[in-house]
Structure formats: C-alpha cells, structure tokens
Amino acid sequence: MASPAPTDAAGGLPVTYERHGRIGVITVDHPPVNAVSQGVRGGLVAALDEGLADLAAEALLLVCAGRTFMAGADIREFGKAPAPPTLPEVVAWLDAAGKPVTAAIHGTALGGGLEIALACHFRVALPGARLGLPEVKLGLLPGAGGTQRLPRLVGPEKALDMILSGDPVGAEEALAIGLVDAVEDADTPLEAGLRAAERLLDRRRLAGRDVLVPVSARSGRITGTDPALFARRRAELAAKTPHLFSPHRIVDAVEAAVTLPFADGTARERALFLECMASPQRAGLIHAFFAEREVAKVPGLPTEAPLRTIGRTAVVGAGTMGTGIAMCFANAGLPVLLQDSSTDALARATATIRRNYETTARKGRLTMEQVEGRMALIRPTPSLDDVAGADLVVEAAFESMDVKRAVFRSLDAICKPGAILATNTSTLDIDAIAQATTRPDDVLGLHFFSPAQVMRLLEVVRGAGTSDTVLATAMALARKIGKVGVAVGNCHGFVGNRILHQRGCEAMALVGEGASPQQVDRVLTEFGFPLGHFAMTDLAGLDVGWRIRQERRKAGDPEAEAPDWLDVLAERGRHGQKTGAGVYRYEAGSRVPLPDPEVDSVIAEDRRRRGITPRIVADEDVRERCLYVMVNEAAKILDEGVAARPVDIDAIWLHGYGFPSWRGGLLFWAGQEGLRRIAAAVERHARRTGSPRWQPSPRLLRWAEAGSIPG
Ligand code: CAA
C-alpha cells in the first residue's frame, strides 16, 4: 500500500520499525496517548510494509511507547475531511499481513487502538492494561471492524455489553473472555511482546504450519446466537436511553456480524458509522469530552504555580454533604478527619458511609478489603482541635453566614500555617467568610454537588484574596479525587446555582400562570435532563432552598422573592424525597415522583391569592422560557467574568446538573439552537415582563449578531 510521509503534526516520527532478532518491531510513539492520527496511520502502513519486506523478520510485533497503547482515533480530526490512509484501510492492511503480527498492550487500548489490535493475529496484555470500545460515549460506533471482530472473539452478547457501555475491561477479564490471548507480566510492553512473538514462532515450527488465522476469517462463537438477543437489547435501549442515536446503530452493526459474512458486515458497519459521524449528537459528545479537559486549564493561572501538598484532609460537619465529601477523599486514598460536635451525627455519618461502601461491594465494584481500607482512612472526631494538622479543611456546616464565619474564626486560630481552608457553601459570599480569618489568601470555596461522592462537578470558587497557589492546588486536588474542577468567581450561587435559580424562577412563573410541575418536568426530561426541575428540587430538599430564601429575606436582599407555594410546602414539612413528600409524593422506599392533589390545591390557592386565572401553557413555551433564560444568565455570568469561558459553563451544567451530554453543554447547545432566535425571544420576554431576569445580556446580543459564540 502506498503511504504518505509518516510524520506527525510536530514533524516527528510517530511510528518506527526496528528488528530484534527474528522479530520486526513496529513502535508507535505519539504522546500523550498515541492517538491514531493521520501521521500514525501513515506511519503504521509504512512500518508494516518495511516489516513485511524485511526477509529476516519472521514475525512482527506492534508496541507503543509512553504511558499507553493507542487510546483511539485522533478525536481532533473528527468532522474534518478524512485524510488517507483511513483507519479501516490500516486495519485491512494489518489483517492481510503475510506474517503473524502480535500486539503488546499496556495502559489503555481504546476505540481505534483496540480495533488495530483486533486486526493483529495475537494479542498479549500487560497485567494493568484496560481494553475497550468507548465510541458510544462520543456518539459513535467502532468504525474500523470493531463491531465485526469483537463478536467473533467474545460472542455477540459480551460484545454488545462492551460496545454499548463503552466501559473497558481489565487484562484478566480480557483473557477470560477471549479478547486477548495471553497476559504477560513484564517490565515493558516490548519485553512482553517479544516473548509472546517468539513463543508463537516456536509453536508454528512445532506445528509445521501457520497456527494463526486473522479474526476476520474466524467464525468462533458467532454461531448459535440467541435470536431474541437483538430485540431484547433494542427494547432495553428504548426504555433506558431513548434520546441516544448511536446505541441503536451499534445493535444493528453487531447483528450484522451474526447475520452477514465478514466483508458485508464490515460494509454495514461503515454505513452505520458514517450516519453516527454525521449526527449532531456526535458533535455534542465530542465537545463534552474536550470541555472536561479544557476546564482544567484555568486562564490566567500560571501553569508553573507551585502546588501545596495535600496529605491529610479534614471535613467539618458530618451532615449529608460532609459525609459525601469525606468519602471523596477516602476514595482517592487520602486520610480524612470527619469532625462534628454531635457524636450522634458522627455515628450516623459513619454508618451511612459503611452502608454505601458495602452496597458498592455487593455490586462487585469494591472488595471487602477495599471497603475496610477506605473506612480506616476516615476518622470521626467531635473535637475541632483535631483538625489542626490537616493540609486541607473543608467546612460543610449549616448554610448560615454566622455559623460559617464562626467556624472559620476557629479554624484560623487552630490550623497550621499553610493549611487550605475551604467552604462548601453553595450560595454565601466567600470573601465575607474569608474575612473572618487572618489568611484570606488560603481561603476558597470547594462547592461539591449532592451526592458529593457521586457527582463529578466541583466548583472551585476563587475569592478576592485566594492565592494562585491555593487555586492551583485545589484544581489539582479536584483531578486527584476524580472530579471535574471548574474555577469560578465569587457571586451569589456562583455559576451553576445562579443559572439554576433563574430556571427555577421561570419554572415557578410558568406554574403560576397555569402549567403544572409535572408539565414543566416532562418538557425538561424530554429535552434530555434525567430529572425535571421540581423532581430535582425534591431530591435536593425543599428545606435547602427555603432556608436560603429566608436568609436572603432576613438580609434584606431586594431580589429575594416573596414567599410562594414552595415555601408553604416546606413549612408543612414536605421537604422532598427524604420526607416522602415535596412537590410530589413518594411511596415508601420509592423514588418515583407521583402527583399529589394536596400540592395542586396549594398551587391553586397561591394563584388565587395573586389574582391569576390559570391558562393552558404550551410545551414550547415551557421549553423556551426554561432554557433561554439559562442562556441569558450564562452570558451575564461571562459578562461579569464570574466564569472565564463558555466551556466552563458547559462543563458545570454537564457534570453538576445532568445537562444532556449529547447536546454538548448549555452554550454549545445554544449555538446549535440558534443565537439569533434565543436573543429575539429574550428581548420579547423582556418587553413582556419587564423582569431583570429577561434583561438581555449584551454578550448574548453580540453572539446573536455574530451568529456564533467565540472561544
Ligand atoms: N484523540 C485526541 N486527543 C486525545 C485522545 C484522542 N483519542 N484521547 C486523549 N486525548 C488528549 C486529551 O484531550 C488530553 O489533551 P490535553 O492534555 O491537551 O488536554 C490528553 O490527550 C490527555 O488525556 P487525558 O487528560 O484524558 O488523560 P488521562 O490519562 O486522564 O486519560 C485516556 C487517558 C483514558 C486515554 C482518556 O484520554 C480517554 O479516554 N481518551 C479517549 C479515548 C477514546 O474515546 N477513544 C476512542 C476514540 S473514537 C475511535 O477511536 C473510533 C473510530 O473509529 C473513530
């Protein structure tokens, strides 16, 4: 096959060929993750040609340098014109190689990287390796033979599990299911691969014939498939992920592996892959992938900012948030002191943590040894003095400025110099809290989202005094504990809750006019949110918002709303799911929200009191008003510099509020929805209501004029 010059964008040689004895070694070296870029593809073909032409090479070995095997196609090339050789061409070239090719896998073999390995004759994995086809997470399907070869190796059922979930399997499981032929403990993939390739040649000599046939020529376990398998999977998808495009095409492609010969199945896979590639969901999911990584790079924060060491952590307050935050640290192997003056609260927290871990263990995701290891990292204490030696203290006390300032005054007196003092407040002024200390440069907000041990978002709130070192350390810590840390500025509600608040006001206004909470929630779940606004309020607890509103009214905040029907429900003890009743009612032990006539009458009474005659509200009005008001608020947040970039807002809503990932994030979606249309609607609602909520953001108007959102 003719191949272009095998250089990458940096002009280096991403793929090299070198012979070790009778084995020709092809090495991919394309940091950071050996993504299969055009340079790598061209290099692979050129190196393969060289190996096939090398008369002294009886077998070939494919290995990767650096931290991982090839982690997939180069995602940055998607959406551009395909540049030859394509991945399917590289795979076909390997498949047809006249010499046995072994792939030695370390790190992660993902997507196109695994498809390349699948086209080799033999796969050996190092013990820590992970192998998977995560294309579904990018709105795609494996488009270089993965849906045809994987079922031939592991059977269609397991192949569907892997391709539909996108989750990788470890080396041992890969061996057990037949995805790899051997697991080889060695210092380097080269060492493991050379040993395996030598053994293969010996086996061939002993057998006196070729012992290997490419996967494409095998039928393996592909016969005898349960005929109901595909119908069952389609029904599951329709119930679980009705919005998603690519999973249905994945089922079609794997079915083709069972019903069609290899070449026809591969052609079908290609056609389905191209459909996925053209779908807006692919663009949204890829934006979401890069957004998660982009937010780690904080504009204006010097990359060389020194970091403090976080060895010992402490959490003050053993309520729901404090308990979850303590688990986040323990999950990352960090010792954590969980402090609360109430020994009852500590006992409850410890029991909750154990119960959570044991449930995870029952699902097979932790061993009991790991459960005990994590429990041993969490030390409950009633004494605040015990936190004196912590490198980081996260305060998760009651959401009241007086309480928080008192805690910070004490922490200032107790904690060692250089300790980072963080508050988990979701709404209060970080600077006012920092001013209770003599070291505002060490203070910042670490706003976890409930349940803290599950939700990936961490808003890292920079106060006026927070130093670069403290911010950089917090961002690094976020990554260490598996969170998506997004740096934001200090304002009421920061970024996520500030936008949520506007959506909430609009949702309340719609209900005031005649919509029902169920209608609002249905429109939002049809849009793709996992929960509607009011079901989410029930999950968070009505008492939380009620308490915040009371604080604001007490503080004389002119923007604090008058008491409404939500306050009435909270006063009646309907605090949401946890009390079995909120905006909805819940049957014992169930999380399914059910409409409740008591709530309908509270809403009706509220409308009567305000002199409103309810009207029929169109679903389109609900969609437009709930979502466009968020976009307008997001633009204002950028106007004020509270968030640095549109991508920060996208990541916040994706990881903290269940914004549908296939829509890419709030502002990515806004770009697709049409900025002119959104701005025109915002202006119309501003004229209609005169409300500051709808006052158009100058930035939104600029975006509308330009037709796109820069950066
Ligand atoms: N293409 C381009 N860049 C990639 C990439 C890819 N496939 N995978 C990772 N990167 C980049 C990241 O954007 C990041 O860049 P910056 O440093 O500039 O931000 C860098 O590589 C390091 O990535 P991470 O920060 O994610 O590093 P990690 O060690 O935490 O994780 C990883 C490594 C597990 C490989 C993770 O990056 C990952 O899951 N990558 C995506 C893998 C994937 O989805 N592959 C399938 C692609 S689709 C395909 O292959 C099928 C096809 O036929 C088209």
UniProtKB/TrEMBL annotation:
Task: Show the taxonomic lineage.
Answer: Bacteria, Pseudomonadati, Pseudomonadota, Alphaproteobacteria, Rhodospirillales
Pathway in which the depicted protein is active: Lipid metabolism; fatty acid beta-oxidation
Keyword Oxidoreductase part of the UniProt annotation: yes
- What coarse category fits the chief subcellular location reported for this protein? other
Query: Coiled-coil ranges per the record?
Result: none
Q: Which residues form the 3-hydroxyacyl-CoA dehydrogenase NAD binding domain?
A: 313-490
Organism, per UniProt?
Answer: Azospirillum picis
Protein name (database record): 3-hydroxyacyl-CoA dehydrogenase
Which enzyme class?
A: oxidoreductase
Q: Under the GO molecular function aspect, what terms does this record hold?
A: (3S)-3-hydroxyacyl-CoA dehydrogenase (NAD+) activity
Which Pfam families does the protein's record reference? Answer: 3HCDH, 3HCDH_N, ECH_1
Q: Where in the cell is it found?
A: Peroxisome
- Alphabetical keyword list: Fatty acid metabolism, Isomerase, Lipid degradation, Lipid metabolism, Lyase, Multifunctional enzyme, NAD, Oxidoreductase, Peroxisome
Query: What subunit structure does UniProt give?
Result: Monomer.
Swiss-Prot/TrEMBL catalytic activity: a (3S)-3-hydroxyacyl-CoA + NAD(+) = a 3-oxoacyl-CoA + NADH + H(+)
Q: Does the entry feature the keyword NAD, yes or no?
A: yes
EC numbers for this chain? 1.1.1.35
Domain 3-hydroxyacyl-CoA dehydrogenase C-terminal per the UniProt entry, residue ranges: 493-586, 624-708
